[in-house]
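S1.2 Input.
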Amino acid sequence: MAARWIFLLISLLLPHGLIFQGPMANFPVSDCGVSKRCVGSPDSGCLRSGICRELLKYSYDTNADKVRIELFGTPPAPGSTNFWVALGVNQQQGQMAGTLVSECVYNNGAVQAFASFNADSGYSNRRLPPGQEKLGISNDRGSFSNGILSCSFLLDRVRTTTGHDFALDTPLYLVLGDGPADGNTIKPHQTTPWTSEQPLVLTMGQPQTSFPNLQGLQTIAPVRTTAGQAVPLTAGGFIRQSAAASAPPAAITGCAALKGCLAEPAGCLDNGNCNTVASYRLDPNRPGEMVFELWRVMAPAGDQYVAMGLNPTSPSMAKTGVIACVDAQNTVDVLASYNPSYYSTAVDNPKEGITVLQTGADGTHLYCQFSVQSNKSFRGSFAGSPANVDLNNPLYMVLAYGPATPNGILRKHSTAPLVSSGQVRLTDVAVSGVANKDYYKAHAGLMVGAWMFLASVGIFTARYYKPMWPGTKPCGLPVWFHIHRPIMILAISAAIAAFVLIFVQVRAWTATPVSVNPHPIIGIIAFGLGLIQPIMAIFRPHPGTANRPIFNWAHRLVGFSAHILAIAAIFLGLMMPQMNVLGGRDYGAAFWIMVAYAAFHVLWLILLQLIDWIAPLVGGGRRTTTMQMKTVNGHGTVYEETVIQEPVKAPASTLKTILWFTHFIVVAGLTIAILVLIGIST
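S1.3 Output.
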């Protein structure tokens, strides 16, 4: 029982992805996307490296009217000689109940395939009764070598069991799992099964052999220059061409020499390791038209489109004409739409002015090549319907990808869009595109430093350290004020700089709808309250006046409110796709650092408040008596003596000093940790 609780605690504390993943192996993936369609777990990204937990390959045998299945898996524990890997198909997403399972069981040297069913009422798996234990399964064979279990078999196109029909020529959700076995009987899985986010049709033909992928592609020799040298083109403009090049996706063949390209990640045009590419060139067969290519490695699995935006005035998604390569309902097509704001709207004719030249999808990649008339229309029946977009004029190019509805309507992109570094004249073969996150990172870094560190130290010092160090008053002002004032001035200055940076980048109050992430509106409110603070301080009443208590409480309330909202905004900001911190690989680390910061902050608030309440009752501090003399009349001949008892040491002074430095160090460390994660976010 204790071990179970320890395991549960570890699972909560470790970042997501470090637990419940199971062992992985380097599976053969060279034929994926070429002659076979493939699905890998724990995510489709493993297909590029081959390092997966489970791997499924499938292809349709038209002669036999069956689907050939190949499954690959690894032992759940080192040295295991009795285990299984399985494929499940279900008509509902994310459900184990009602799943028809095709098992590959390895039992001490022998590999066999069986059929089983997960009961509709729960997750209990039952082998089909004798005579049906290989329902729809034939030609099963397999082996276990070098730590990898491989198994292949043919599946009937339609199988029926327990009143359910499972037709492989209809969209079905896939489930991949593995676990230990007892003889030829499978036992419950020990890792979380992988389920597809979208239904797949297993009878789809093999991928087009001409479809671009990362293996074995020929490239057009680029213009040879010194790396980084600017080379003028006959069409005008300049390119930066590296002398080094490897085998890139076909979509970037000839980039910068024969066509312009926008690609990510930054620098991938030099080494060919691109995830997303948009290319453009003049159409040699259609005068006045442009040929575009859109190419994307489809990860995450939910991505169904790659799209380019054309904006005459702004590097943003708002007021942008969009042309997308969409994989919807197992059909790849090129469709136009328009973004009046930060959402996609259908146009009157999504095919107007577009000639589709080639499309393809293999479950791992998505590719479209098409020609567009130079005066492209994005008219629609909606407010603010735009005039035509002239491709001969300079335009900002925006590249995005994400999920789509079954009828091809684009949903919110998966990550921050890629934007050209400036306006692009498409008739010139020249562009350099990078995902410019510098402004986002600078904004985030300044806000984190301002609110997590500076504001935290400044607020705690003013709230709990006014009585401290009473005998030391540099320039006639108490020590706490010398700490509080410059720190808070620096904090609000950093916040102003961060606000300006993000406003310059987004060119609007928000680039993200509040319904998606309320970070912008909460951040603006926190920033506004922060601006009020120094204005209130300038007009604060003198100590001892009737309005001073009102100022004290208002100043305190506004400050605490701004700080709380700012920390909430930081939490939400780290989740935004523009940063990809809480939403990416460092989810666990960033999340728990922020939780630790909030918990530490609350703990120190309670601790210091208790000390302020209890310490005067226990000790009260030592006091000294002094005499203050001042003139009463204007001639300086009559003096009035005033007895002043001034504390030399505030209550619990030593303890509070230790706590101040502890707070400073801990908050600084947590802030630096978040800044590092922001800096390395991709």
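S1.4 Remarks. The chain has a mean pLDDT of 75.
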